[in-house]
Amino acid sequence: LIVVVRLGERPERDHRINTHLALVARAFGAERLVVFFRDQSLLSSLSAVNNRFGGKFEVEVRPSGSWKKVLREWDGAIVHLTMYGIPLDEGLGRLSVMPNSGQIMVVVGGEKVPAGVYGIADLNIAVGNQPHSEVAALAVFLDRYLKGSQLELEMEGWTQRIVPQERGKKVIGPED
Ligand code: SAM
Predict the structure, then answer these.
(1) Residue 140 Cβ < 6 Å to ligand 1
(2) What's the CA gap between 108 and 7, in Å, rounded?
């Protein structure tokens, strides 16, 4: 089970980023994204994607300010992605020997990350020590954690399914 937590509470500023984060979490093997604000268009975009392409990915809205509670009640390993953390390979090695290493909460920041996150996380992992993006950090981390297997993920309950093609678009299911 993989749950992604998005810290930060400024949906109006980060609307596209949050949508991308949810899409990447879904496509790269997570079951849920936890956010601390209600953005109706984020919720409806993801439910439209599930209806079309399958799966049960959820966007869970928790009360503003409750990030500590969300992290503390997690029964598994907590990985915080931050450019200040330990190298990715070392982090994945440490994660693999932890009890519950298959049950992870992956925490990414938005604007300013509260200092307490570094202490509550079991591992603070950097995807390189240069600043980039929570979306890129999540994609690279999940790819390395799942060793690429997420790209073969079959999602159940699809109404449309893409058939890989060298050129053009082939889709099974009703046309839009
Ligand atoms: N300035 C913010 C801070 O106080 O940490 C970080 C802003 S950054 C645009 C947003 C998020 O992207 C971070 O909280 C982190 O989760 C992720 N991120 C950015 N660069 C990263 C890196 N090199 N490794 C891991 N995560 C990274």
Answers:
(1) no
(2) 6
Structure tokens at 37: 């604000």
What are the angstrom distances between the C-alpha of 28 and each of 63, 141, 144, 147? Answer: 26, 10, 10, 11
- Locus of tokens 């399958």: 54
What six digits make up the tokens of 88?
């990715």
Mean pLDDT score of the chain, rounded to an integer?
Answer: 94
Distance (Å, whole) CA 156 – CA 76 = 26
Instruction: Please say if the pLDDT value at position 146 is more than 90.
Output: yes
Spatial contact of 134 and 79, defined as CB atoms under 8 Å apart: no
The structure's pTM equals 0.95
116 dihedral zone (left: phi>0; alpha: psi -120 to 50; beta):
alpha
**40 ligand 1 Cβ < 6 A:** no
Cα–Cα distances in Å, from 169 out to 79, 112, 162?
37, 41, 8
CB of 137 within 6 A of ligand 1: the answer is yes
